[in-house]
TrEMBL record, chain A:
Record's subcellular location: Cytoplasm
Family: Belongs to the endosulfine family.
Organism: Aquila chrysaetos chrysaetos
Amino acid composition bias (Basic and acidic residues), ranges on this chain: 12-24
GO cellular component, one term: cytoplasm
Region ranges (Disordered): 1-24, 73-112
Function: Protein phosphatase inhibitor that specifically inhibits protein phosphatase 2A (PP2A) during mitosis.
InterPro entries noted in UniProt: Endosulphine (IPR006760)
Protein name as catalogued: cAMP regulated phosphoprotein 19
Pfam family, one: Endosulfine
Alphabetical GO biological process terms: cell division; G2/M transition of mitotic cell cycle; positive regulation of gluconeogenesis
From TrEMBL, chain B:
Cellular component terms (Gene Ontology): protein phosphatase type 2A complex
MF terms in GO: protein phosphatase regulator activity
Origin species: Falco tinnunculus
Signal peptide: none
Protein name per the record: Serine/threonine-protein phosphatase 2A 55 kDa regulatory subunit B
Family to which this protein belongs: Belongs to the phosphatase 2A regulatory subunit B family.
Gene3D superfamilies xref list: YVTN repeat-like/Quinoprotein amine dehydrogenase (2.130.10.10)
Length: 112, 449
């Protein structure tokens, strides 16, 4: 988008350049709204903050988990879900689905 | 003026000194450095990573034989500080990533530091052992018990030298005090207390007491639907043990005085720069969110970092900063893509040099920026393996915004946004800086003649 040698600009380009002069942020905002028309009306507000506060949330119900585990014994074990990290409300997690959270027993490479 | 410590940036030529870490094609997530901190003398440099590990480097004694080699930093100790956990009660995965490390001032032969992940703060003691007792009566040298009936003589055990061993032991674990994610810890100047801050609350701890902490700030609204801002960083004043500041996602800073009340929900000072409402856009609030706040060593100023700028505030003036520095303003016309790839939420830190005359912060493409507050000059440098010959002088880098790109410049569209310098540290009294570039730690020093 770098300006090339001066050429007579169309009316559209002129307006765009004017907008850029006024505020590149507003141009970017227009781009974003064009791609995501349903983006929340309250920018930077509760949506972002709630997402931030909920970091790390995995949906796990020990009752459902144990019942699913019991049911599994009678059935063929299904193949593990391709995406092991997303375990959300609808899907009852099974032992295979829970992410393996093992500590790093390997020493840091900075100490090598 | 401290001898040998140039306060004018034009006098300082930064040179490559060391780089730690490996050159891997794919970076293991656990190796990503998440915090870097010098101790109060600059003798030790600690790093924490996403895998919950801490590595401490120690500066070697400068030898008179090699005056050109300023003391290099070598590995002193490394340990696993935090491990991943799963809170079954709240269905929360707790990352082992070390968010912050803060050193305690040294009071005896051992070193102490605080390290924290999202939920738990730990006090670690790092001590040296270079002697061991030998000549026990009831045990032999391998530790096996001797048959008492075979012992005919009594001897006094003696301490004999052994190879230096550095051990790290967790001395205190401060747990279960934070519902939300800890973003900051700060040691108080009284050396008896420290604070830990999460998104909505700040707690005050005594180092000796792990089963209690005082809540000193609580901004959680009664109805979470009304939540409009979160705490992003907090720090104690370097000299006044009653004073601290905390920053918010709305670009404001509050200074609180613990003498006024037990719960410091009402600030003593409120720092906010007025915004021109006609300039407001969807991105305004996001890019105004403060990612780091640091007191100057003098205690007179605070520095804040938001997405595009670094600002210096005078504690005596609340209505606007006294200085504003553009870190990478060319990103303003890239905000849409930076929002889509989440880079707009990157949390950059900022640091002061020892004399508070120069400030430094990171950017993308492994670039980092320094601003001299006196001369108003700034420089962009790069942490890269290409400039890693010993004592090679770092060449200033320049980003070209539009129009003709000069030979040495890089265009905005060519910047690598996956190479972000979020964490840097400046030696307390010398021109030595540590720069964390993803999984590598670079150490730069100024040129020694």
């Amino acid at each position: 988008m770098s300006a090339e040698s001066p050429e007579p600009a169309s009316a559209e380009e002129q307006k765009e350049m004017e907008d850029k002069v006024i505020s590149p942020e507003k141009v970017e905002e227009a781009k974003l709204k064009a791609r995501y028309p349903h983006l929340g009306q309250k920018p930077g507000g509760s949506d972002f903050l709630r997402k931030r506060l909920q970091k790390g949330q995995k949906y796990f119900d020990s009752g459902d988990y144990n019942m699913a585990k019991a049911k599994m014994k009678n059935k063929q074990l299904p193949t593990a879900a391709p995406d092991k990290t997303e375990v959300t409300g609808d899907h009852i997690p099974t032992p295979q689905d829970l992410p393996q959270r093992k500590p790093s027993l390997v020493a840091s490479k900075l100490a090598g | 003026m401290i001898p040998g410590f140039g306060s004018l940036m034009q006098d300082v030529l930064w040179c490559f000194s060391q780089v730690k870490g490996t050159i891997d094609i794919g970076v293991t997530e656990a190796d990503i450095i998440s915090t870097v901190e010098f101790n109060h003398t600059g003798e030790l440099l600690a790093t924490g990573d996403k895998g919950g590990r801490v590595v401490i480097f120690q500066r070697e004694q400068e030898s008179k034989n090699q005056p050109h080699r300023r003391g290099e930093y070598n590995v002193y100790s490394t340990f696993q500080s935090h491990e991943p956990e799963f809170d079954y009660l709240k269905s929360l995965e707790i990352e082992e990533k070390i968010n912050k490390i803060r050193w305690l001032p040294q009071q005896n032969a051992a070193y102490f530091l605080l390290s924290t992940n999202d939920k738990t703060v730990k006090l670690w003691k790092v001590s040296e052992r270079d002697k061991r007792p030998e000549g026990y009566n009831l045990k032999d040298e391998d530790g096996r018990l001797r048959d008492p009936s075979m012992i005919t003589m009594l001897r006094v055990p003696v301490l004999r030298p052994m190879d230096l061993m550095v051990e790290a032991t967790p001395r205190r674990v401060f747990a279960n005090a934070h519902t939300y994610h800890i973003n900051s810890i700060s040691v108080n100047s009284d050396y008896e207390t420290y604070m830990s801050a999460d998104d909505l609350r700040i707690n005050l701890w005594n180092f000796e007491i792990t089963n209690q902490s005082f809540n000193i700030v609580d901004i959680k609204p009664a109805n979470m639907e009304e939540l409009t801002e979160v705490i992003t960083a907090a720090e104690f004043h370097p000299h006044h043990c009653n004073t601290f500041v905390y920053s918010s996602s709305k670009g404001t800073i509050r200074l609180c005085d613990m003498r006024t009340s037990a719960l410091c929900d009402r600030h003593a000072k409120f720092f906010e720069e007025p915004e021109d409402p006609s300039n407001r856009s969807f991105f305004s609030e996001i890019i105004s969110s403060i990612s780091d706040v640091k007191f100057s060593h003098s205690g007179r100023y605070i520095m804040t970092r938001d997405y595009l700028t670094v600002k210096v505030w005078d504690l005596n003036m609340e209505n606007r900063p006294i200085e504003t520095y553009q870190v990478h303003d060319y990103l303003r016309s890239k905000l849409c893509s930076l929002y889509e790839n989440d880079c707009i939420f990157d949390k950059f830190e900022c640091v002061w040099n020892g004399s508070d005359s120069v400030i430094m912060t990171g950017s993308y493409n492994n670039f980092f920026r320094m601003f001299d507050r006196n001369t108003k000059r700034d420089v962009t440098l790069e942490a890269s393996r290409e400039n890693s010959k010993p004592r090679a002088i770092l060449k200033p880098r320049k980003v070209c915004v539009g129009g003709k790109r000069r030979k040495d410049e890089i265009s905005v569209d060519s910047l690598d946004f996956s190479k972000k310098i979020l964490h840097t540290a400046w030696h307390p009294s010398e021109n030595i800086i540590a720069v964390a570039a993803t999984n590598n730690l670079y150490i730069f020093q100024d040129k020694v003649n």
